[in-house]
Design goal:
Radius of gyration: 17 Å
Shape: globular
Strand content: 25-35%
Number of domains: 1
Largest sheet: 9 strands, mixed
Distance between the termini: 10 Å
Number of strands: 12
Structural class: alpha+beta
Helix content: 25-40%
């Protein structure tokens, strides 16, 4: 699994674009963003749990009372504070604060494309391989639930849906990946599409990496 990730997250992977955003599917949102404030720097941890029976991705569902992104499925993460050394430090801090996942369980492997949201965040997705056996401790004020999605589900293009809804008077398109009782959509789903893009390309060019993850 680690070899596969290392290949997938290389800077020269043609499937990586460097930057992605909500605007990729919605040109109108870019016009709105140009009228707003500069984006706020943020980081998320993309935790791939390396189970013997097959890797999974750890996600959270935010509580319904939050002022931003209430009830949405997301990666552990948040804005980068002045005290954070970098995006990696911010992602690890937020993961520990939100779900109790400490850095000693985590092996940072690299980064996905920086992601700009229509709500004003510029997010660095920090991809990490996580050893199984950890115990989660959810921050009740922010996290309603944590759950794991099989990586095979994410890598199956049939699970990548494109849906739309009206937002601020404009029809917005977004990626969605319904999974059981959870609805993964928006920036989180788009970053998972990014993960699929780079891992799929790495697997196509080195099939043994794919075998390593499932064998």
């Amino acid at each position: 699994m680690k070899n596969w990730l290392s290949e997938a997250l290389k800077d020269d992977n043609p499937a990586a674009r460097g930057r992605r955003s909500d605007y990729d599917l919605n040109v109108e949102l870019k016009k709105l963003a140009a009228q707003g404030k500069p984006p706020r720097d943020a980081a998320v941890l993309v935790p791939i749990v390396d189970h013997a029976h097959g890797p999974t991705i750890l996600l959270t569902k935010r509580t319904e009372h939050l002022s931003k992104h209430a009830g949405q499925v997301s990666f552990p993460g948040g804005k980068i504070d002045d005290a954070d050394a970098d995006a990696v430090a911010a992602a690890l801090r937020e993961a520990e604060e939100e779900v109790g996942l400490t850095a000693d369980w985590v092996d940072v492997c690299g980064f996905l494309d920086t992601y700009r949201t229509g709500t004003g965040f510029e997010i660095v997705p920090v991809v990490a391989l996580v050893r199984p056996g950890f115990e989660l401790r959810l921050q009740a004020s922010e996290v309603e639930a944590a759950f794991e999605v099989p990586l095979d589900f994410i890598l199956d293009r049939r699970n990548h849906k494109r849906q739309s809804a009206v937002w601020q008077g404009l029809r917005r398109e977004y990626y969605a990946m319904p999974f059981g009782d959870f609805f993964i959509w928006g920036a989180t789903a788009a970053m998972l599409v990014n993960l699929c893009d780079v891992m799929e390309h790495a697997a196509d060019n080195a099939p043994s990496n794919r075998d390593e993850a499932t064998g």
